[in-house]
Specification:
With 484 residues, the chain is of the alpha/beta class. It folds into 4 domains: 116 residues, Rossmann fold; 148 residues, 3-Layer(aba) Sandwich (Rossmann fold), CATH 3.40.50.300; 71 residues, Helicase, Ruva Protein, domain 3 (Orthogonal Bundle); 72 residues, Arc Repressor Mutant, subunit A. The protein has 21 helices and 14 strands. Strands 2-1-3-4-5 form a 5-stranded parallel beta sheet, sandwiched between helices. The protein has a 5-stranded parallel beta sheet with strand order 7-8-11-6-12. The structure holds adenosine-5'-triphosphate. One of its GO terms (molecular function) is ATP binding. This is DNA-binding transcriptional regulator NtrC.
Length: 484
């Protein structure tokens, strides 16, 4: 590089101006810094600078409003927005208004310098994103709650992905918000005026999945009395959410792969190929790489789907989000007609200590229970402790009667199982069989504890309701009627 590039900084916080200026100067950039949006705007109009770094809240103007104005007069000028607000709405606004990058404060200087370098190296194409008709209020209404670093990173990624049609793979334990992310990608993406269609692979009988996905012709199979429209066709122009993709049977995987490769599909029993016009978001709580190793998931399909991976961390890895989420769920409970509640500090502390195997969904259910069952307006630690103990019998089971952990007990049991089979018939499908052995008593206990109430049992297990229903069928568990 021959000439030093100039970075324009606008932030009303003097300390930040100083730190940024010094760091950028040390890296060889020319720097001009100001506390006002008006001065920044004058510099931009005068044709100064190769890159802008602006804060959002400044005394004279909101930095986010400045971004589209800058892009209109100087489309090639890259803008980096930094903000202490740290909400999904801010990330979304910054990205959709044409910012090159959004950085939640506090950020580390190394990261900022890397962004500056990337911004200056990027080809000078002007990308001003259409706001589109019927654009929602840029994320204000979408309840993606949480300010942890992990969630900030997710907001940034999701915001950026709303300006593309790339395939996204969302992974995370049950109840971490995978479907919510898929909806955000749709509701704020380019296809928001099209349909959002979801299909859960775990909830549909295996033999029907292909026809559910791609549709079928009349008479394609026994019982196909009419032509059936598949989800690919329903989702045309919009987003197709393939939930629990790890549960997709092999034949359907092969067919899906072909559709993704060729961009067209045919209905079951049909001949005429149709264009696939969907953005795909897939999700799973299972470890797909492990399924690949076990030969249960196609590696080539995995790479087709895993274009942009988003990993949602379990709630226990972002306990700083718990107070906000709890508040959000209590507000939601109130909006649905339940009484208004507060949590006292001890209650919050108790929530932070819990392991949350069911993640955000478990927290949501707990908040609803507390709102519904407890008369007092301010909920204390004891109420939380009592409700958590009620809902999670596994907590005690983790310390088994033998004193060892559940894992050790299972290992002992399996070791004797394997020993017993050593000389007999070759053992096949061991993984599935062993899991089914653990699954069966687990589901039975959960159903017994909830008196056969599948909704409650699903929530206790942290499983999707449909997943539980399917498993009950597969494992042929007796369905007991709930007591009144
Ligand atoms: N960050 C979040 N902010 C607000 N609500 C959230 C958040 N994460 C999850 N939720 C809420 O928690 C519940 C569970 O989320 P969601 O259904 O998206 O999880 P999931 O990962 O798709 O679960 P599963 O794998 O069991 O289908 C929903 O009611 C969702 O709105």
């Amino acid at each position: 590089m021959t000439e030093a590039r100039t970075v324009l900084i606008a932030d009303d916080d003097r300390a930040i101006r100083t730190v940024l200026s010094q760091a950028l100067a040390r890296s060889g950039y020319q720097v001009r810094a100001t506390s006002s949006a008006a001065t920044l705007w004058r510099w931009v109009e005068d044709g100064e600078g190769d890159l802008v770094i602006t804060d959002v809240v400044m005394p004279d103007e909101n930095g986010l409003d400045l971004v589209p104005r800058i892009k209109r007069v100087r489309p090639e000028l890259r803008v980096v927005v930094m903000s202490a607000q740290s909400t999904f709405a801010t990330a979304l606004k910054a990205t959709q208004r044409g910012a090159f990058e959004y950085l939640p404060k506090p950020f580390d200087l190394k990261e900022l310098l890397a962004v500056v370098e990337r911004a200056l190296a990027a080809p000078a194409t002007a990308v001003v994103h259409e706001e589109g008709e019927g654009a929602p209020a840029e994320g204000e209404k979408l309840p993606l709650v949480g300010r942890s670093t992990a969630m900030q990173e997710i907001y940034r990624t999701v915001a950026r992905l709303t300006t593309t049609d790339l395939t996204v793979m969302v992974t995370g334990e049950s109840g971490t918000g995978k479907e919510l992310i898929a909806r955000a990608l749709h509701d704020y993406g380019r296809r928001r005026s099209g349909p959002f269609v979801a299909i859960n692979m775990a909830a549909i009988p295996r033999e029907l999945i292909e026809s559910e996905l791609f549709g079928h012709e009349r008479g394609a199979f026994t019982g196909a009395l009419n032509r059936g429209v598949g989800r690919f066709e329903q989702a045309a122009g919009g987003t197709l959410f393939l939930d629990e993709i790890g549960d997709m049977p092999p034949e359907a995987q092969t067919r899906l792969l072909r559709v993704l490769q060729e961009g067209e599909f045919t209905t079951v029993g049909g001949r005429q190929p149709m264009k696939a016009n969907v953005r795909i978001v897939a999700a799973t709580h299972r470890d797909l790489r492990q399924l690949i190793r076990q030969g249960m998931f196609r590696e080539d399909l995995f790479y087709r789907l895993n274009v942009v991976p988003i990993r949602l961390p379990p709630l226990r890895e972002r306990i700083e989000d718990i107070p906000l989420l709890a508040r959000h769920f209590l507000d939601r409970a109130r909006a649905s007609g339940l009484p208004s509640k507060q949590l006292d500090p001890e209650a919050l502390e108790r929530l932070k200590q819990h392991a949350w195997p069911g993640n955000a969904r478990e927290l949501e259910n707990l908040m609803r229970r507390l709102a519904a069952l407890y008369p007092q307006e301010v909920i204390g630690g004891d109420a939380v402790t009592a409700e958590l103990a009620e809902a999670t019998p596994m907590a005690e089971a983790e310390q088994g009667p033998g004193g060892g952990s559940l894992e050790q007990a299972v290992e002992r049991h399996l070791a004797s199982f394997m020993a017993a089979h050593r000389d007999g018939m070759p053992v096949r499908d061991l993984y599935e069989r062993v899991l089914a052995e653990v699954e069966r008593p687990l589901l039975r206990l959960a159903l017994a504890a909830t008196r056969g109430n599948q909704i409650k049992a699903a929530s206790m297990l942290g499983l999707n309701r449909n997943t539980l229903r399917k498993k009950i069928r597969e494992l042929e568990l007796p369905v007991v009627r709930g007591l009144p």
